Amino acid sequence: MDGGGEVMAPLVILVLGETGRYLSLVHTLLAAGHRVRAGTRRPGAATGVRQRGVEIVRVDLDDVGSIVEAATGADAVFAAGTFHRTGAEGDVLHGRNVIDAARIAEAPHLVYVSVAGADRPTDVPLFESKRRVEDYLERCSVHHRRPRVSHGERMEPVERTGAGARPLSEPGSA
User: Fold this and answer.
1) Side by side, which strands form the sheet with 35-40?
2) How many CA atoms lie within 13 A of 79 on its CB side?
3) Positive or negative CA dihedral for 40, 44, 48, 51?
4) Angstrom distance (rounded) from CA 120 to CA 41
5) pLDDT score of 159 more than 50
């Protein structure tokens, strides 16, 4: 249901990296009645979610075209970084590729998980890579939310529309 009490139609949500840290999101989306398209570089590792009705698509975050193909027709794209696998430069490249692909595919929404502290310069490579991706995201015409995760997994969601960015009071609002 939306905030007005109306039942929402199921959405198609592309989750990038579903075999990793955000597998629980896939289960939550399925439980809410949404269709999940899981983008992964290892489709064979996604057998558990495939059995639950998830559409599995191969995505290479180095290849914008593969992300565009996966994002086409999705109502939302959910992505997090790849810092722990690729380092700072890979994280920035992949983040920008996801943003570009969401724009090209005309995905109505992008949720890009960042990190608390990415809103200011630091000497922490992870924070700096996220800040660079966030800076790029702000310059692009993609409607997005940017939850910032701290070590306690608390979200600090931010929504950007044509009027600029604004913090949201709760992850599910707006």
Assistant:
1) 55-58, 35-40, 12-16, 76-79, 109-112, 144-145, 158-161, 164-167
2) 34
3) positive
4) 31
5) no
Pairing mode, strands 158-161 and 148-149: unpaired
Q: How far is residue 70 CA from its own chain's centroid?
A: 13
Contacts 24+ apart (CB under 8 A), 119-122: 119/148
Top pLDDT among 42 and 73 is at 73
Q: State pLDDT tens for residues 60-84.
A: 999 999 999 999 999 999 998 888 8
The Cβ of residue 47 has, within 10 Å, a number of other Cβ atoms equal to 10
CA–centroid distance for 145 within its chain: 9
Distance CA 101, CA 103 (A): 5
Domains of the chain as residue ranges with CATH: 12-167 (3.40.50.720)
Distance CA 78, CA 157 (A): 13
Beta strands in 95-143 (DSSP E): 109-112, 114-115
Mean pLDDT of the chain: 82
Model pTM score: 0.81
Question: Residue 99 class from Cβ within 10 Å (0-12 exposed, 13-18 middle, 19+ buried)?
Answer: buried
